[in-house]
Write a structure and sequence with these properties.
heterodimer; A: mainly alpha; 4 helices; 0% strand; B: alpha/beta; Aspartate Aminotransferase, domain 2; four-stranded mixed β-sheet; 45% helix
């Protein structure tokens, strides 16, 4: 964010998902969610897997495709006010590695 | 043994699985592989043959690096001033009475300010060499900000190092894409640049025409009623100048305030020409119209004109002004005002506070000049009585108005009065005002001097027009 003269991208939303180690962290996050669901005694293993899939997909759908804008002051004079997170990733470039990864994960789940 | 049994079980499960399940899994795996290996869309590259390339190169005519300009362009022969630009200036060797620069209160020649400037120079040196966020903040900056806030009767003021970039930094800090800014047509160039930098939707209303503004605000109101969700996130601003540089008239602030309250728009006033000029103590249009300064959301002004320093400031409530400390691009990314100039501005405000008679004299001179200028038959005085900025336009429309006015100015210079024709970058301005001579009245002139200037103008305009 260009607050007060700091260097960096105008909208960090475009690049934080391409950071080093993001794929591993993401996988570990999903694993954590699955382990939490497995720890409920009233859920069978099959249910835990289904719920992991559903919860992850719903959560990511809301965060990436429904919510518009950024939680911080826009550095680009409001261009990202009307864009969803998905559109902001990599400044709108299609089929980048990050986007492919995020498309593949729900399918694999 | 157990592991082979498990593998066997898995194999059995695989054979027993319903075929739709297997088909679905196969489809998903194919899809994943396709996504991983799919390349992004690249449009077909057109390959040119050697002959086509040579043809294109032969056809190409380069555009000149510098476009042609007319031989008589005024910037090719600038009038050079030697010495200080006080009451009298030496233009191209001729000593003239200065009615061209914005030295409204005559503070350029003030001895107290010069003394304070020299003392400040010895203490602080000449520059600050850093933006406010990176070691560029000196105690005199904070003192000046506090002094300005206290003078204007507001909570906080923020100081900019370049007067031209004061309003253009302030407007984009609050107005972004999707917001609406209502702006007077006749605003000066820096404000126009600020409007385009904000990327908002700009709605211009006719100069000082409150009915036009009301009509536009009602239209916006209708649009808001049709789409209340969008209206809730749209911010509306009203940007005007206190005293218009290009026209010399004062804004109808009382009616504009009523519209502001009715339609809930945020009011920004640029008081570059009215700070130190209007009101009993020089506090600007709010004092002139006797309205509380809290009604205005943001006041910005240049310190270039009445105060005789340079730089600019914005003032208002803390809530509004504090935002600019991180979002005002001119504040964050430009080096701060040299401490020397901050001291000059500080002392100038002290002088202004202790001698309100300067402001009174300025307004009296402006009114007198306005009355005297009515004598002119071939030139029309445009501007309010109380404004020190007066625009003299041709009473009858002529084709070469600009050249004729420049001729008058040249003759006046030969006879010892320095005037200027108002200059605009015609291609860049939103609305180019008609050609005029911009005559500046200041507090250090006597009534005889004003009268003699008007008589000279009468003589020259009658002979040349």
């Amino acid at each position: 964010m260009m607050l007060g003269g700091t260097p960096g991208p105008t909208n960090p939303n475009s690049s934080w998902l391409s950071s080093k180690g993001m794929w591993l962290t993401y996988g570990v996050g999903i694993l954590g969610l699955h382990l939490v669901l497995l720890s409920f005694p009233f859920l069978s293993v099959a249910w835990a897997w289904t719920l992991t899939n559903v919860v992850h997909n719903t959560g990511m759908f809301i965060l990436l495709h429904i919510i518009k804008g950024t939680p911080w002051e826009p550095g680009d004079q409001g261009k990202s006010y009307f864009l969803t997170h998905w559109e902001q990733i990599d400044n709108g470039e299609q089929f980048t590695k990050t986007k492919k990864f995020l498309t593949v994960v729900p399918i694999v789940l | 043994m157990d592991t082979t049994w498990e593998l066997y079980e898995m194999f059995q499960a695989f054979l027993k699985a319903p075929s739709y399940h297997l088909a679905l899994e196969a489809f998903l795996m194919v899809w994943v592989l396709w996504l991983i290996f799919h390349k992004s869309y690249k449009p077909e590259r057109l390959e040119l043959t050697e002959k086509e390339k040579e043809e294109l190169i032969a056809e190409w005519k380069p555009e000149p690096l510098v476009p042609d300009s007319s031989k008589n362009h005024y910037a090719l022969k600038p009038r050079v001033v030697s010495g200080a630009l006080g009451k009298k200036i030496t233009v191209n060797g001729t000593e003239c009475l200065n009615m061209g620069t914005h030295n409204y209160l005559g503070l350029i020649d003030s001895p107290e300010i010069k003394e304070a400037a020299v003392k400040g120079l010895r203490k602080y040196g000449v520059g600050s060499c850093g933006p406010r966020g990176f070691y560029g903040t000196v105690d005199v900056h904070l003192d000046l900000e506090a002094q300005l806030a206290e003078f204007m009767g507001v909570e906080e003021a923020i100081l900019y190092s370049y007067g031209f970039s004061c309003m253009p930094s302030a407007i984009p800090a609050y107005a972004k894409r999707g917001d609406v800014i209502f702006c007077d047509e006749g605003v000066s160039f820096p404000i126009q640049k600020g409007l385009s930098a904000s990327r908002s939707q700009i709605v211009f209303f006719k100069h000082n025409n409150v009915e036009d503004l009301e009509r536009l605000l009602l239209e916006q109101d209708d649009l808001d009623k049709k789409n209340p969700k969008k209206a809730k996130v749209t911010r509306r601003f009203l940007v005007i100048e206190g005293l218009y540089m290009n026209y010399g008239d004062v804004c109808p602030l009382i009616e504009l305030l009523e519209l502001k309250k009715r339609f809930k728009v945020r009011l920004f006033i640029d008081e570059s020409c009215s700070f130190g000029v209007l009101g009993k103590n020089g506090r600007g249009v709010t004092e002139h119209f006797n309205i509380p300064v809290e009604d205005v959301d943001l006041i910005s002004a240049c310190l270039d004109y009445a105060i005789g320093s340079y730089g600019g400031f914005c003032c208002g409530s803390s809530y509004v002004v504090d935002h600019q400390r991180l979002s005002g691009l001119g504040y964050c990314f430009s080096a701060s005002l040299p401490p020397l100039q901050s001291i000059v501005a500080s002392v100038a405000i002290d002088v202004l506070k202790s001698k309100p008679e300067l402001v009174e004299k300025l307004q009296k001179n402006a009114r007198f000049a306005h009355k005297e200028l009515q004598r002119l038959t071939k030139l029309l005085v445009c501007g309010d009585e109380v404004s020190p900025v007066k625009h003299l336009r041709l009473a009858a429309d002529r084709a070469e108005a600009q050249q004729l006015l420049e001729q008058i100015v040249d003759h006046m210079q030969e006879e010892g009065v320095a005037l200027t024709v108002a200059r605009y970058i015609d291609e860049e301005e939103h609305l180019v005002p008609p050609p005029s001579i911009r005559l500046i009245v200041s507090a250090i002139l006597d009534e005889e001097e004003i009268s003699s200037v008007v008589s000279l103008l009468e003589k020259n305009s009658d002979t040349l027009l």
